[in-house]
Amino acid sequence: MRSTDYSPDLTPPWKRQQPVPEVAAERDLVVEEAATGFCGAVVRCEKTAEGVTVTLEDRHGKHRVFPLTPRGFLLEGRVVTLVRPTTAAPARGPARTASGSLAVPGARARVARESRIYVEGRHDAELVERVWGDDLRIEGVVVEYLEGIDDLPAIVAEFAPGPGRRLGVLVDHLLPGTKEHRIAAKVTGDAVLVVGHPFIDIWAAVKPASVGIPGWPQVPRGEEWKEGICRRLGWPVDTPAAWKRILASVNSYRDLDPALLGRVEELIDFVSPTD
């Protein structure tokens, strides 16, 4: 008898591992991560330094980031392998801007108003532009940055606010009793609105889950905050690179803490009254 390398599979059919379907991780797809039982809707699927990951948001708004491992998720109780989408997901309902506002197809940017919004620094301005840029262009509102709040009284005086020329200011760490709070009180008036958020820096207004970290570390007083954050997260102490990484994790208002969202919306409404 001639020998052969062929060896038939004698495993009973019910013991054979069945193929697992691959499912594209499209936005809003609801799945359960098999290892942890975390259930949520897909927020984003992206390539990172650690490989392709998917971010899920549960019904309480909590985000978790998971790697796209084979057989790693359950879809309607069935084991599936999530894969990165190859095409853009079809539109579902009216298109919205990153801030959650209804998008206006074909709308042109309005000629800039005399009113302005000032923020403390470049990072603040870039974050506001990323989420509210479409809204600001439709309203004709320009955002500028101050590089700190110490000179705000002089800046407000030079701006000369008045009817039709309003000034809105967003301040970091605006808490009662602080230097920032005292300066804000000096300039607030009918045509000037100063609002603030509780974060020591705008970085911390980005939800940790969106950045893929468990939380924003505590940095002792006296240590430069941004450098301290990089050290404690194990990132290179390179604040421009760190900010680029943080900003890239923000795709919409869902990635920001509500304490910032309300304040920016308040400023936009203040400087763009109904015509």
Detailed description of the structure:
The chain is an alpha/beta fold. Helix content is 26%, strand content 20%. It contains 7 helices and 11 strands. The protein has helices spanning 122-139, 152-159, 179-187, 208-211, 225-233, 239-248, 258-271; strands spanning 22-24, 30-33, 39-48, 51-57, 63-67, 73-75, 78-83, 116-119, 142-145, 167-171, 192-196. Strand 8, helix 1 (122-139) and strand 9 (142-145) form a beta-alpha-beta unit. The longest helix is centred in the middle third of the chain and has 18 residues, at 122-139.
Pairing-aware structural class of the strands and helices? alpha/beta
Q: What is the overall number of helices?
A: 7
Characterize the largest beta sheet: strand count, sense, and whether it forms a barrel: 7 strands, mixed
Approximate shape: elongated
Radius of gyration, taken over Cα atoms and rounded to an integer in Å = 25 Å
* Oligomer kind: single chain
**Can you tell me the residue ranges where pLDDT is under 50 for at least 5 consecutive residues?**
none
Straight-line distance between termini: 95 Å
Helix content: 25-40%
Mean pLDDT value: 81
How much strand content do the residues show? 15-25%
Secondary structure: number of strands? 11
